[in-house]
Amino acid sequence: MRKERLIVPVAVGLAVIWALAQYLAALLFERELARALLDLEARGELVVERSGVERGWLSSSGIVQISPVLGDGWRLQLSYEARHGVFSTRVEGEARPLAGPHQVRLFGDWLPSSPPRWHAHYQTLGGTLEGSIQLAPFLVSQGDRELDFRGGQVSFGGQQGDWRLRAHTQPWRLTDGVATLESGRASLESRYAYTAGAHHFTQHDLLRLDHLAWQQPGLQLEARELDYRSRMLLDDSELRIDSELTLNEVLAAQQVLLTGRVALELSRINADAVRETLAALGQQAAKAYRLEPRELLAALEPELVALLADSPRLDLTEVDLESPMLGLVVRGDGALFFDPRRLDELSPSRLDDAAEQARWLARLDGDATWREVPTVVALWLGLPLGTRDLEIDVIRGRVRVNGRPLPPLWR
After folding, report:
1. Which residue from 33, 212, 231, 405 has the least number of CB within 10 angstroms?
2. What distance in Å separates the CA atoms of residue 391 and residue 408, rounded to the nearest whole number?
3. pTM
4. pLDDT tens for residues 384-409?
């Protein structure tokens, strides 16, 4: 009898614990979603908004709208419906891409098919999210133009401060009259790690293409096994971007036109100015009236000029290219620097003016070396036949090769 009297309070207690846990799970999901969207917007490149939000213990729903800060070329609407559990939340919805200032729907207006659906799981205790979007094949035609896309998949996951994205697409083909651009299988791997408010961040990207081919009457180019790697780092002092492009081979008329790799590094972009520029972009995006590109440059001129305060540097860390078809080999390295003195004399909004362009070019200094230069290049530049290396100097925007002014390249 005593045991029977305990059943009711135990059952009530378990029900209360379950209800509290359920409420906490829903609360944690909502908090993490809000934080993730704020972090996505903190970079300053995107505008993120939510609408139609409904919150509940067992489920919640809404629409997330993502668009670029600059321009109105596209918008992405992500609808979501979350079913909350004590230990995990299942999320699913539709991805609705819109194009152009008139917000034309890709799926529905251009393509007679429904938008792709996305699915994700959020782990309440670990705070991790894992999800994916399946991209269905489609064929769209407009006059002589045709796009044949054969599908793909995008997966994403991580937690606050560390996110990963992987995308894989099947071969696709774009035809425009007699010209055709065709791509083989492609993959993108990206990882983005950051501190609160994206004050510091690191982003790694790796893009791989099996092949990319361009065909038109009289010209056929095909690139095989292209790899592009990049690393973007923002710390206390600077924004730095490292990039590397590797070409297994580029073919023309079934001959190897180009093979090799190129590595670049852009550094000394003032970190505080980067953050101020991104913040100013966000403020401009929040205004009802969107500025024209030239007006926007003028409005952001102080922030943009401040990016150059630490003398930005572009390093050509390695060039190793070979063209068996042309009999050319390019191996070398170099660096280019920007003079940051008297920055108030410069105006990014007037860069379409020839005099302003000359003022910017006059700020450039640097040097580069082309080792074992082919004889034909030495002859083309009017140098002695025995020239083995080219020493290229940039002095206040003017180029000298082996101590001589650079001759006209086209005669």
Report:
1. 405
2. 17
3. 0.85
4. 888 888 899 999 989 998 888 877 66
Structure tokens at 385: 């036949």
Structure tokens at 243: 């990039």
Query: What is residue 341's predicted lDDT score, i.e. its pLDDT?
Result: 92
Tens of pLDDT, residues 147-177: 888 889 999 998 888 999 999 999 999 998 8
pLDDT of residue 16 exceeding 60: no
Tell me the two tokens of residue 152.
């793909």
Of the candidates 173, 95, 83, the residue with the CA atom closest to the CA atom of residue 132: 95
State CA 46 to chain mean position distance: 12
Is the distance from CB of 72 to CB of 100 less than 8 angstroms? yes
Percent of the chain whose pLDDT exceeds 90: 40
Nearest by Cα to 85 from 48, 51, 115, 58: 58
Of 302, 305, 284, give the one whose Cα is nearest residue 293: 284
Tell the burial category of 411 from Cβ atoms under 10 Å away from its Cβ (0-12, 13-18, 19+): exposed
What are the two backbone dihedrals, phi and then psi, of residue 73, each rounded to the nearest 5 degrees? -70, -25
Kindly report the average pLDDT of the chain as a whole number.
85
3-state secondary structure string across the chain: CHHHHHHHHHHHHHHHHHHHHHHHHHHHHHHHHHHHHHHHHHCCCEEEEEEEEECCCCEEEEEEEEEECCCCCEEEEEEEEEEECCCEEEEEEEEEEEECCCCEECECCCECCCCCEEEEEEECCCCEEEEEEEECCEEEEECCEEEEECCEEEEEEEECCEEEEEEEECCEEEEECCEEEEECCEEEEEEEEECHHHCCEEEEEEEEEEEEEEEECCEEEEEEEEEEEEEEEECCCEEEEEEEEEEEEEEECCEEEEEEEEEEEEEEEEHHHHHHHHHHHHHHHHCCCCCCHHHHHHHCHHHHHHCCCCCCEEEEEEEEEEECCCCEEEEEEEEEEECCCCHHHCCHHHCCCHHHHHHHHCCEEEEEEEECCCHHHHHHCCCCCCCCCEEEEEECCEEEECCEECCCCCC
Which of 187, 277, 288, 287 minimizes the C-alpha distance to 239?
277
Using alpha carbons, list the distances in angstroms from residue 123 to 83, 90, 156: 12, 9, 14
